Structure formats: C-alpha cells, structure tokens
Amino acid sequence: MSPLISRILMIGLCFIPSELIAQTLPLTPNLINFNSSEGETFLIESTARQDYIPLSIQFETQENGAFCGVASMVMVLNALSIPAPKAPEWRKYKRFTQTNIFDNPKTQEVMTKDIVSKQGMTLQQLGQLLASYPIKVDINYGSEVTLKEFRQRLIDNLKQPNNFVLVNYLRSTMGQEKGGHISPVAAYHQQSDRFLILDVSRYKYPPVWVKAEDLWQAINTKDSASGKTRGFVLVSVE
Amino acid sequence: MSPLISRILMIGLCFIPSELIAQTLPLTPNLINFNSSEGETFLIESTARQDYIPLSIQFETQENGAFCGVASMVMVLNALSIPAPKAPEWRKYKRFTQTNIFDNPKTQEVMTKDIVSKQGMTLQQLGQLLASYPIKVDINYGSEVTLKEFRQRLIDNLKQPNNFVLVNYLRSTMGQEKGGHISPVAAYHQQSDRFLILDVSRYKYPPVWVKAEDLWQAINTKDSASGKTRGFVLVSVE
Ligand SMILES: [Ca+2]
Ligand SMILES: [Ca+2]
Ligand SMILES: [Ca+2]
Ligand SMILES: [Ca+2]
C-alpha cells in the first residue's frame, strides 16, 4: 500500500463518526439521529424547544422492557418539579424514580409495579397513572386527530414551559424494532417538520428527529390490549 | 383587592418559573442554572459544545451518595461507544450501568463495587478505574495547572468529538453543599468564561454553568484520602 493511501486510511480510522460504533440499533433513513451534526443543528434552529432542557436533564433509561411508560412518567414528573417522594438511596433528597413512583396508593389503585412490569401500559393507563399525581392530564387518541391537529397541539405545548408531551406509538410504523412504545417529545423543528423524541430505551435507540407525519401514523395504530388507537398525553401543573 | 391587582397576582401564580418550585437545593449567584433562559442561551452561543449531545443523551443519576465517579464513568464510557457489557435487565442489549461496570475483572482489581460504595474514589482511582477499559486516560492534578492551562485543555477537548472531560472538585469552593465530587463537563461558553457541568447528583443540584476560575479553584483543593489535589481526567478512544 502506498504511504499516502495508508495515511488516508489511518486518518479515516482516527475519525470514525460516533454513529458507526454505537451500541444501539441502526436507524432507517427516515429518522435523523439527534447525536449527529444535523441533529444538533435542528435543535439550535428549533423555535419550539421550551421542553428540551427540562426533559433532557431528567433523561433516564427504562429499567426493563415493559417500563417505557414508567421511565417517561418519571421524566415528566421530575421535569414538572411537583412534590416528589423520598428515595432511600439519596437520604433526605426527594425525586421520582421508577420504583418510588408506585409508592403512592392512588397510583397503585390504577396499576401496581408488578402488573406494569408484566404487561406495560396502554395510553389510557398512562393517563390514569399520571392523573394519580396532582397534575392536569389530557389523553388524546390517534384516531381523533388529523395530522394538522396533531402537529399543532404538540407545537403549542413545546413552545410553553411547565407542560409536557408523551407519545404512545408503534415503532414499526416509523421504521424501528418493533412494538408499542412510550417516550417524551422534547422539541419541534419547523424547516424539516420533525419532532424530537427522547427515547427512554437508551440501550436500543438514540433520540431521533421523526417526521410529524410518520409520528402521527405511528400513534394512529391499534393497541390490541385496549382495542383503541395509541396517541399522546399532555400534562401540566394544575 | 382590586380586580386588576387580583388579575396580576393570578397571572403571576400561573407563571412561576420552574426554578422556584424545583426539588433541588438553591444555587448561589455565582452559578447559573442550565435549566433557565440564560443557561439555554449559553449553550446556543457555545462554540465548544462538541461533547454536549453525546453526554446529555447518556445523563444519569448517581445511584448512591458515593457513586458520583461511577455515574460519571458510565456516562463517558457509553458516550465513547466502546464495547459494553450486557445488562440482564435489557436482554441482548449492551450498555454500561453503575452495576455492570464492575463486572470487568481488571476494574475489580483497581476497586470493587463494595469499596467504592463505602469510600468513593480519588482522582487517581478514577483514572485507574477508567484505564481498566480500552481507552486512553490522562490524569491532571489541580496543583499542576495554571488557570490558563486548565481552561485551554478543557476547551480543546470540548471542541473535539470522541473524547471527554471529567472533573473532580470540592463543591464548597464554588458555593455548593459540600464535599468532593465528580461529574462530566459538557461545554464552554466563551463570553461568560464558564463551563457546563452535568452534575450526576441530579437529586441535589441541576447542571450549572460555573466560572472557569471558580472551577479551577475547586479542583486545586486537597483530597484528604490521597493527600494530593483534586483535578480532571481526559479520556478518549485509543
Ligand atoms: Ca382528550
Ligand atoms: Ca411544554
Ligand atoms: Ca497527566
Ligand atoms: Ca471532547
């Protein structure tokens, strides 16, 4: 091999983009990795990113395969800064965790931790579990909203502080593996018409910018556990 | 009360900034909350934020009071995308956690999970624990660097991908409660001469923008466990 080609190859090896050596699953071309130059640019250009910092500083990984809804709830409850329970691991400090979120008797009346660990949760159950805390909860089924309504309701929320959006969608509709999933939405990028999902299964996928239409299609899918469509939940302080 | 005053008070109550109802401890005026308008502006204006997105999407909370170093290591190892161990809770997926990071026999030779749980770690131990993985580790003591050198080494790193900065500092020196602490640094803001610390004790403090000089003073403090000063560690893929 010529020294020049060898040198070019070495330079190439020194600058492998982090996307190529990631542990997570590959993304289909319709999805844009947040952890990329383009993904960063979209955040900088976004004019509907009021929820991004509050959510990103609470970002956490779902503790098991059924806990996407639980991790998403913990993120928004911590981001809303409502009174939180103690967590024994941190002595006097108070913070929602994927364990102590079930300490509230009203939450347990909706579903116990054991049941959620076995079967996850439907859109309605997500809304009911959230409503067991002193916040305002608005459940929206995919079947009830046009693309235009869906886009506008999310944008309105993403421009306001102290309220948040959680989406319940079918991954396979937007090119991911595979089933129903729940995560918070953190921002909207107008030029590309994309929403930023902070995917709580961080072992599996990075956060992605997804086309509004793809996400709307993915929430307008039937959940066999409920017989209804998936959708989104808006939460705010009361 | 006049209807006008009553209306003003109501509007006031509807727009309580999230800082005022946060669960975390209050910040002294020398520190700027990342979760604020000014904190967001600094990120947008930063020209040394290459590490911000890779670290922020791996942000996690230390699992107990002694695990600041462990949580910081987990964040940078996941951000470096080096081969990770399996975690039983996520079946086939691989990702560093504050538990499986100790599965590596070379890591255990430095310190076991039990010992770190009891006594935390010094700067040198942080470097040695990191070096038990296939990455390049550069340990820097606070006593060895001028403010100018400290600022420049961090800025150089924060402008490059695939390498990261961890700081070991005394909280009380920069106005926080209270002892030695470890967290990753995610960005630098030139106009205000501040670094962004993604504080892993998320139950206690939000991420903060701290003056370069304050952080330099806080790493140039003696750790009674080692008899040496605290400092910072630079890590990169080999
Ligand atoms: Ca509704
Ligand atoms: Ca909002
Ligand atoms: Ca050195
Ligand atoms: Ca870097």
TrEMBL record, chains A, B:
Pfam families: Phytochelatin (PF05023). Gene3D superfamilies: Phytochelatin synthase, N-terminal domain. PROSITE patterns: PCS. Its EC number is 2.3.2.15. One of its GO terms (molecular function) is metal ion binding. Transmembrane segments: none annotated. GO terms for biological process: phytochelatin biosynthetic process; response to metal ion. Keywords: Cadmium, Metal-binding, Transferase. Residues 15-238 form the Peptidase C83 domain. PANTHER family: GLUTATHIONE GAMMA-GLUTAMYLCYSTEINYLTRANSFERASE. This is glutathione gamma-glutamylcysteinyltransferase. The lineage of its organism: Bacteria, Bacillati, Cyanobacteriota, Cyanophyceae, Oscillatoriophycideae.
